[in-house]
Amino acid sequence: MDLVQKIKTVAKEKNALILAHNYQNPEIQDIADRTGDSLELARIATRNDADIIVFCGVHFMAESAAILNPEKKVLLPDISAGCPMADMARPEQVLAMKQKHPGAAVVSYINSSAAVKAVSDVICTSANAVKIVQKIDADTIIFVPDRNLGSYVQRFTDKKIILWNGYCPTHENFTPEQLELVKEKNPGAFVMVHPECRPAIIDMADAVMSTGEMVTFVKNTDRKKIIVGTEIGMIHKLKTVAPDLDYIPASDSFICADMKKITLQKLHDSLEHGKDVVTVDPRTSDRARKALEKMLELS
Predict the structure, then answer these.
(1) CA angle 165, 169, 170 (to 5 degrees)
(2) pLDDT of residue 38
(3) Cα separations (Å) of 232 from 171, 194, 270, 293?
(4) What is the pTM of this model?
(5) Which of 24, 101, 113, 177 matches a 20 to 30 Å C-alpha distance to 264?
(6) Are strands 140-144 and 105-109 parallel, antiparallel or unpaired?
(7) What separation in angstroms does the CA of 56 have from each of 48, 71, 106, 294?
């Protein structure tokens, strides 16, 4: 029996739901029960009857699934798959910032630790960040931890946004010069980028979208050639929903090493042996759940 079939067999036996982020390796996306962006997967994690959730992504995503499903076992097939941006904010730092700005609401990007979520008023994703900031009942927002996403949101609101000095290294390392070069090589191509990119990149793009919004766009567009300004795994996802389009990676170095840590063998071993369990202590989980549920309510 090959490895793919073994994984499917064990998942069925154990009533496990396999979720995969759009940045995962192609073979992981292909074997998953559902793929999506952070918002889609957060919603799916709350609407299933599985006993086990296997989250093929990075640590904060598995934490969010565990917070929203305290009665389920949540597995992350490589427990070391982290997020450098999430590590750029600690709860004590966020609390200190709140003391400096009484009355401000803390809106934390889902790319944050459970401990940071627990001291936040509401969570957001790249897909709903603008809506969340517009809807939250506060005139001043402490936006944690992504300064680029926060800067993008500022374009759509008159509220004061205090930007945390965090960023995604994978998106931050993509430069305007690289985008200009790929545009010159592909005249007329439609440029879509993720809002974690630098403001200068956003200014050069035809559209700014979450990965879920990119999927919706390519299903309906009449454009034939598209430059994809986000992690390179996204192109596999786009090809599965709109295979006839020509996708050009904005940069061949647009790779998140942590997202690529999960392999079929690690997925099998995690499922087979029930290892790599992600847990969140109850007090932190209860407080973080309120912020995540607030996001689902507002979005």
Answers:
(1) 145
(2) 80
(3) 11, 12, 25, 30
(4) 0.93
(5) 113
(6) parallel
(7) 17, 19, 28, 24
